[in-house]
Amino acid sequence: LFFPGFQVAPETKAVMKWLRSIPFVLSASLHGGELVVTYPYDYSRHPMEEKMFSPTPDEKVFKMLAKAYADAHPVISDRSELRCGGNFVKRGGIINGAEWYSFTGGMADFNYLHTNCFEVTVEVGCEKFPLEEELFTIWHENKGALLNYMEMVHRGIKGIVSDKFGNPIKNARISVRGIQHDVTTGN
């Protein structure tokens, strides 16, 4: 995901180290400038292709996570195509990141490829830099959707991998048949 000569900022390195040290499983990155939920991959499989659908092996899970947010958001779930973010209505308010626009070095791709964390990107409003008086409304539009998204942490497989004596096994690899992406147990 990072290329030779690609400079990683110290704060980015710190976040990467933090993500590898704590077994997060779900996260969301909040952005402004549109009203849509995107999911990995954000980087196109073919770098010369600007808008190319680039699904992860966990495409169905990411779509479910993105929809959980979008469906609970009062504006994203609004079916009007004339509103902010209306060009994503036919897609249910979600899109594969690389299909929207491809970029390298994104947090969602990093989390998926290098940690056990599944991350979506939430574009919380069409203003890239909203005014202070708009923040209260943006918060209330996103609060329920954020809570609904956080509840998704209880979906899927969870438990403790232990040896025959009941001791937890650190870094045990867990594979799901039909999905070419393993996860590992935490500490």
From TrEMBL:
Start and end residues of each Peptidase M14 domain: 1-153
Active site residues per record: E123 (proton donor/acceptor)
Regions crossing the membrane: none
PROSITE patterns: CARBOXYPEPT_ZN_2, PEPTIDASE_M14
SMART domains: Zn_pept (SM00631)
Molecular function terms from GO: metallocarboxypeptidase activity; zinc ion binding
Record keyword Hydrolase present: yes
Alphabetically ordered keywords of this record: Carboxypeptidase, Glycoprotein, Hydrolase, Metal-binding, Metalloprotease, Protease, Zinc
Gene Ontology biological process terms from the UniProt entry: peptide metabolic process; protein processing
UniProt record similarity statement: Belongs to the peptidase M14 family.
Protein name as catalogued: CBPZ Carboxypeptidase
Gene name linked to the record: Cpz
